[in-house]
Structure formats: structure tokens, C-alpha cells
Amino acid sequence: MVALADALRAKTLPKERKELRELARVTNGAEPWLLESSDQTALIRRIEQQFPTIEEAACKVGIGVATGADKAFIGDFDSLDVEPDRKLPLVGTRDILTGEVQWRGQGVINPFADDGRLVDLRQYPRLRRYLEARKDEIAGRHCAQKTPTNWYRTIDRIFPPLAKRPKLLIPDIKGEAHIVFERGRLYPHHNLYYVTSKEWNLRALQAVLLSDVIRLFVSTYSTRMRGGYFRFQAQYLRRIRIPYWRDVPEALRKELIEAATNRNPQACNRAAFRLYRLSQEERSALGGNGE
Q: In the 8-state DSSP scheme, what is residue 16?
């Protein structure tokens, strides 16, 4: 231990200390320290300097609805005995296990009016009967006890237009990137993050997010779980850097869209490498440099 302490205090790294290695560009202002291999760190720092964040590039990262009482608020869509405008079809992790959406028919109760306030249950007799039959479970939540008059709200407000927007769905915990395109029919559950965009073609963005470049971003910043799993949480997704859509050449746009549509990971990588203008050395860095 004394020898190790002396080596760490030395002005230059002793060559005979094989268990020590020196990393450059670990710090970058208030950004988290990067302790990956030096070539991977250099690649990330280069991309961070040259490209905007995913949200600066007109993409929105969000998370699906948390109800606080899923057994009460969620059920078979057709069997939810409420007014038709008080329920939405719901998508969760089990619906996207194959990499494509295969809806299992679940739905979620929406107690909110378009203005964001809770609906008046006197105007929705079926919804009222449904909720009051489950009042013990719903009203027992912490959020309901804080505001008893709003006992039937979900933890998160529900925005029905989101269900109709095309989006990319991303499970929280995954060993590999699992980015699924949803055409705009379903509302996401809280175990899914989603990405929407007013500018980027979502199929093209799907190809980028499936690439090894983005996997490096997420694996570098994310908490690593047991078994090598990463957490694809919003704070890590928002660190992703992509070009502005207007700066993507037409031929490359088509290449990205085709790669994602065909679910071809090699093609996603090839297109992403060109998108980020990776040199041969940087492409090799995605596998580390053995340091």
C-alpha cells in the first residue's frame, strides 16, 4: 500500500506499475467524470463538442404515466367500464419484447380533462362507479392523502395527444439498446421512456439510437446493473448528442431510415458512423483500446 501511494503521488506514472494507468480528459467542467478507456473518452468528448444534445436537436425525452395504483387504473381496454373518452390504449414493456409493438389490449383510465384539471365525476357516471368501486385502493395512495378532494387522480397527468404521436419507446433497464417504433396509437406506461420529435424522422433516429455510438454514450454515463444491464433513464438519454436534422444529407437520411425499418444493426452502425464522421481509429475505439 505504501508503494502504491508513492506511485500515485509521483509526477509521472511509473512504468513498472502495471496495475496503474493514466487517463486523459476525465474531467470536463461540471460534467461527470469519464473513466472509460482513453480512446472512448476522446470520442465522447469530440462528439459532445461538435453536436447538440438530443433535446436541443428538437427531440423530446419523456417517461410514461405513473398511476400509483396500476391494478385500479389499468386493465383490459375493452372491459374498462367507463365512458369512451375516459380511457386510452396503453403500451408497456411486455408489448415490445420482440422489438416491434404487439399490443396486448391493456388500457389506462384518464381522469383529467383537456385543461389539466380533474373531470367532474358527476358528468361521468360510469367513470364515477368504476372509481368508487376501487376507492379504498386509490384513495390510500400518498398523493391522494395529501389532497383528499383529488383522490382519483393518477400520479402523473395524462396528455391524450401523446397517444396519437409517433414515438420511440425505450425500456428502463436493458442489456442492449431496445428502441421500438410506435406509430401513434398507444399511451406509454411508466416503465417506458419515449422520444418524440417535430423535426427528426423517427425511423432515422431509431437507427441512430440503435448504433454502437449511442450504446457507448449510455453505457458511459449510465448506472450499470447486475448482469451488465444499463439503465436507459431520461437523464442519460438527454446526454445523447445528435446532429440537427437539417444537417443530415438526403442520402444518409434514406440510409438511416432503411436500416431501422429493416432492423439491421450492422446497417445502423454503418450509417451512424457516417453521421458522426467517425475515423477508422474512432470506429475501433467503440471496442476499447485495451488500456
A: T
Provide the whole-model pTM. 0.83
Give yes or no for a contact between 168 and 181, defined as CB atoms under 8 angstroms apart.
yes
Number of Cβ within 10 Å of residue 119's Cβ equals: 19
Which is it for strands 87-91 and 187-188: parallel, antiparallel or unpaired? parallel
Question: Which residues does 26 contact at the CB level (< 8 Å), separation at least 6?
Answer: 33, 34, 35, 41
Cell 372509481 belongs to 131
Tell me how far apart the alpha carbons of residues 44 and 67 are, in angstroms, rounded to a whole number: 37
Q: CA 165 to CA 268: how far, in whole Å?
A: 24
Count how many Cα atoms sit within 13 Å of the Cα of residue 248 in the half-sphere of its side chain.
Answer: 25
The model's confidence at residue 219, banded by pLDDT at 50, 70 and 90, is confident
Residues in the chain: 291
d(C-alpha 109, C-alpha 93), whole Å: 18
Query: Among all chains, which residue has been given the C-alpha cell 444518409?
Result: 252
Helix (H) or strand (E) holding 267: helix 265-275
Q: pLDDT digits over 21-67, tens only?
A: 555 544 454 454 444 567 889 999 999 999 999 999 999 999 999 99
What is d(CA 167, CA 165) in angstroms, rounded to the nearest whole number?
A: 6
61, 89, 73: which is closest to 232 by C-alpha?
Answer: 61
